[in-house]
Structures are given as structure tokens and as C-alpha cells.
Model the fold of this input.
Amino acid sequence: MRSVRARAAIGATLVVAVALVAAGLAVLLVLRANLIDQADLQAEVAAREVAGQLALDTPYEDLDLDDEEDHPVQVTDEEGRVVFVSQGLRAISGTGSAGVSPVPSASVGATPSPGDDDGDDDDGDDNGRPGRGEVSSDDPDFSDGTATVDGRQADYRFAAVEATNPAGLTLTVHAGAPLAAEQEAVGTVRGAMLTGLPILLAVVAGVTWLVTRRALRPVEGIRREMAAITASEDLARRVPEPDSRDEIARLARTTNETLTVLEASVERQRRFVADASHELRSPIASLRTQLEVAHAHPELLDLPGAVADTVRLQVLAADLLLLARLDAGEKPGAARLEVGALVREEVSQRTGDRIPVRVEVAEGAAYEVNGSRGQLVRVVGNLLDNAQRHAENRITVQVAAEGSGVRVEVRDDGAGVPEDERERIFERFVRLDDARSRDDGGAGLGLAIARDVAARHGGTLTVHQAPEGGAAFRLRLPRAG
Done:
């Protein structure tokens, strides 16, 4: 079952089937219990009516019985002997005694004579009439059984009620109520459920299939469009977004957002490759020209120029390699570094700088961060290189705490960066006009590398207006935990 529609239809059908079967069983049990309760009530009423007559010492042949076919009656004495059965009763089970032939007893159904009075007022009244027995007030016992009345066997619910006649003999009256109505009702409901359940399950499966198919139709459209984009490699295409506000619509929007980011990334990569090729072409062409001239005319070899072009080419290759590693998601190291010492060490090694650099770090303060020493040194070096190209007379590096992090600020007194260009200068291969540059400088990768490294270390790099009038580059890094 590789189809979501099939799995959804089968799952919904199984759930509904289980629920319907459970509900059907519950309905049948409740219905049967109610019908049995009604049969119990009918049987109890019939048994108590007969027991009441026996308590009045009514002779068996004078007992007034209801419909004997619907309410068969069996009476037993204390020893379990059958003393009376209703007319037409030929067989019985479930009452404790299967007998249907009454056993005569002189003490049953006989009315005592007035001369038999032994002084007990319960045996008769003052006029010599028979006394009155009693009917047990306890709840009757109920049982299931069968009875054959007039040649027809059926299932009955029997109630057993005890009665004591005036002679003190305890009799047990078993009266039955037919279960045919209960069985017919339960059978009808069961048959209706067995007939309707498959139909209902088929309807549920069909509706689930159609609804799922309709719900997944936009997904199929998204899949087809993504397949077309993959085949054509045209990242400018977008998947259709349904008008609904459900999960599928959000999936389509997220997919289009992903395509937009992917398109921008691919375009950025293309520009990067193009710009890198352009930047590499100049030093390679210059170096080749100088080598060809040197080969033809050794005396004209510009060795310093060749070395400078080679160094420029080496630096550019290193920058491109670092950017490639950053784009690949290379994580920085987790070494604990003291930023103040790192800045002092980097500044101390820049002996050939045009303008001396002033370092401001509070005495005794320790500003520790976690990261890659080589990459953070590269950031500080790139910021200082940028300041050296644009400063007039002063460059200052300040290290201080800022909130829960560390701030490294590199300031110069140059022309500064126009506000509308402050984000653009962090793009790759971007160099502002000559007003911001004393020479042709680098390839426009230093600030882009610095910002990428800062982001990989969980920090930020921004540019502002310096108090000296030039640019102030602020590197913020989280402190070591």
C-alpha cells in the first residue's frame, strides 16, 4: 500500500468498523438486558399472583391463571416434589425440577375443618373460616429455561416466588415469561447491523478515498511541478499554491520560499564564480606577460612586480578557499581565546603598516570567547587592512565588554562609509568608488569573509560612523560559557 489514499481509506474503514462493532455489541447487550428485565417483571407478576392465591389456600383446581401458554406455571413443595403444573405443560427445564406430573398431598390445597383449631389464631378466624398464609417479600430468583406447552417448545424466563399456605406448608411457584419477543428483537437488530455494516463501511471507504484524493490533489500538482523544475533546472519556476489555508497550502508556500532561497543561492554562486574568474584573470595575465617578456628579454624582467602579482594571486586563492569552506558549513573550533591578547598579538606583527594602530583594552580585563583562532585573527586582520587603506592619520582598536558578549571595534579617521552603502560593502567582490580607496586594494572579499566568520561564531559585524569621522566596524562575539 504505497498510496496515501489507500492507507487513509483502509485506516478509516478499520477505525469505523471497530467503533461500529463495539457500538453494535453495546446496543445488543443493552437491548437484550432491557427485554430480559421486562420478561423478569412479567414472570414475577405471574408467579406472585399464583403465590398469592396459594397463600389464601385456594385449591389447585380453582387457581386463576393467566394465559397458560405465555406463562407456564410449576409449583413444588418443600421437598422439591411437583404438586401442580399449568394446563398443557408437557415438559419444562430451568426450574430445578423437570417433573410435570403433580404428586397428590393431603396437606396441599386442603381446607382445614373448624374442629382442627389448636388455638393458633393464624389457622382461622372466629367464625371458623380458613386462615391466611403469606408470600415471600424477597426478590425472586430468575433463571432461563424451556417449556413445552401444547406441543410447542419455546424459551422462557422463569421467576421463583415462595408462598406459605395457612397449613404452614412452603410452596415454590415457578412462572415463566416467553423470550420469543426478546429473541426476535435482538435477531432483527443483529440482522440489520450485519446487513448495514458492510454497506456503511463501503460508504466510509469510498468517501475517505474521494476526500483524500481531493485533499491530495494539490500535493500531486506540487510533485509534478517539482519534477518539472528538476528536469528543466529552472529555479525561477514556482509550485502552485492552493487557495486553502491548510497544511498543504503552507507546504506549497514553504516550498516556494525554499526555491526562492535556492535560486538566490545558485545565482550568488554563479556571480561568485564569475567574479572570482575575473579577479583571477588580472594577476594571472599580468604574471604571464611579465614571464613572457622575461623569457624574450631577461634584462626587462620586473621581479618585484611578478612577486607582487604572485602574492596577490596567493591571497585571492586563500580567500576563495576560506569562503568555499564557510559556504560548505564548516564549523569553527571550540578553543577558548582571550580577545584582548589576540588583538595585541595581531597588531604587534603588522610592522609594515602605513599608520600605527592604537589598541585600547582595559588593564587586567579578560574577554574570552570560544572559536577558531585562525579565523578570528583573519577577521581582525581584514578589518585592519580595510582601515589602513582608508584612514588619514589614526586607527584605533578597542576591546570591551558589551552585555553578555565582547565587542571589538576598529575605527579610522577616513571618509567613512555612506549610510546607503553600509550593507553593500559586505557583499563579495564589492568595492566602493575611488573616493573610499587610496589604491586598487584587494578583491573585495575581506569584509565578506569577516562577516561570514562572525556569523559562524554566533556574532555580528556591522559598520557605523566613527567619532573621528571615519568608519567604525563593530565585531560582537558571545562570551565563553
